[in-house]
Design brief:
12% strand, Carbonic_anhydrase_sf, carbonate dehydratase activity, zinc, zinc ion binding, five-stranded mixed sheet, 5 strands, Beta-carbonic Anhydrase, Chain A, Carbonic anhydrase, 236 residues, alpha/beta
């Protein structure tokens, strides 16, 4: 007979967390029940080492979160698009942040052609980023390529986000929505802004070029302008 673990320690932890939260902020859960008014949508990796709310010190109700393997924003992913649409149109978030992280397993699989099963089809989105920037990645020292591709992936997924119909429609009607691209360092617990910050469609091209140049500068000594031209990485 198979004994099922009731995971009682998780329920115990939950009870303690709820008690501590209510003691710290009396009436917290009653207020939370009545409204959800986050200013931010976090699109991050499903990696268990990257807890969105904790990293930025926000409580439940203050950060709307969508996570998947390698923080991908795919135009065919109705799950992600539905989250983005609800966040922008219903919750009226003001900032959407695509957050990757160092030493990402999905990015590592895309870089090294690892076969993991069904997830290979999803990781193909990251492989597309790899192939787009192959000429530049070939100049990056081998031990740094995973993290370089992590940052490139954030840049490309933030670009995809800017070109979703949801974000473009919001910008067209004058709604304040700012897209950001960040990366989180597992080694030091710190977030870094990649300077892919767009508040309107006219911001996108310059923000992309600026962020790409910053990545190039951090990871290679080769001139960013030359490698950018080689890799054909101009935004759409």
């Amino acid at each position: 007979m198979i004994m099922i673990n009731p995971l009682s320690e998780l329920f115990k932890n939950n009870q303690q967390w709820a008690t501590d939260t209510e003691q710290r902020e009396p009436g917290f859960f009653s207020r939370l029940l009545k409204q959800q008014t986050p200013q931010y949508l976090w699109i991050g990796c499903a990696d268990s080492r990257v807890p969105a709310n904790e990293l930025v010190g926000l409580l439940p109700g203050e950060l709307f979160v969508h996570r998947n393997v390698a923080n991908v924003v795919a135009h065919s992913d109705l799950n992600a698009l539905a989250v983005i649409q609800y966040a922008v149109d219903a919750l009226r978030v003001q900032h959407i942040i695509v957050v990757g992280h160092s030493n990402c397993g999905g990015v590592k699989a895309a870089l090294n052609d690892l076969r993991l099963g069904l997830v290979d089809n999803w990781i193909r989105h990251v492989k597309d980023v790899r192939f787009k920037h192959k000429a530049w990645l070939d100049h990056v020292p081998a031990q740094r390529r995973v993290d370089a591709l992590c940052e490139l992936n954030v840049l490309e997924q933030a670009l995809n986000l800017c070109y979703t119909t949801v974000v473009q429609d919001a910008w067209t009607r004058g709604q304040s929505v700012v897209v950001h691209g960040w990366v989180y360092g597992l080694h030091n617990g710190l977030l870094e802004d990649l300077a892919m910050t767009c508040a309107c469609l006219s911001d996108v091209s310059a923000a992309y070029d600026r962020a790409l140049a910053g990545i190039h500068q951090r990871y290679t000594d080769a001139p960013a302008e030359r490698i950018s031209a080689e890799s054909g990485s101009d935004p759409r």
